[in-house]
Amino acid sequence: MISDGAHVRALGGLPGSFDDTILGNFFGPAALRLQEWVGAAAYDDAEQGTPSDPDRAAALKDAEAYLVLYFAAPRMNMVMADGGIVTYRIDGTSADEFTFLKPQQLEELRQVWLRDAVSACRPYIIQAGVTVGVSPAADDKT
Q: Does 22 map to a domain?
């Protein structure tokens, strides 16, 4: 793991009090996706206390953080209630109510974070010879 909860919260504009347990489950998938993009050697180097390429390590840290946001967004956009999952409200809200993104809005936000991840590490993806699209992979839709 290159990134951490504080870095993810900072890049995502999340409050400092945002619970890391929500983000924690998504560092693994983010790390795997980033390793697919840049290769294990570049990823492993970025994990080192003193990486051989500090600029690449910083770029990969940002990319991993954006990927965590990308994967975590659906979980950040829901509340579990006695009757099931509440994902968004249709009616108006008051100051003490939460509003949630509708599915299309959520996917648009996820695509922003995915594009940010790709942009952060693009030079290192090219070096690894990997082709990366911006649309979600089939395994992301589950």
A: yes
CA distances, 24 to each of 52, 86, 103 (Å): 27, 22, 23
Q: Locate 13 and state its tokens.
A: 């504009």
**How would you classify the pairing of strands 79-81 and 84-86?**
antiparallel
Question: DSSP letter at 86?
Answer: E
CA gap 137, 126 in Å, rounded: 19
- Going by C-beta distance under 8 Å and a sequence separation of 6 or more, which residues neighbour residue 104? none
Residue with the two structure tokens 């395994």: 139
- Please indicate, yes or no, if residue 142 is contained in any of the structural domains: no
Domain count, the chain: 1
Q: Return the axis-axis angle of helices 27-38 and 103-128, rounded to nearest 10°.
A: 40
Q: Is residue 58 part of a domain?
A: yes
Domain of 102 in residue numbering reads as 5-134
Mind listing the pLDDT tens digit for each residue in 1-51? 999 999 999 999 998 888 888 899 999 999 999 999 999 999 999 999 999
Neighbours of 128 (CB within 10 A): 18
Cα-flanking dihedrals φ and ψ of residue 81, to 5°? Answer: -115, 170
What does pTM read for this prediction? 0.81
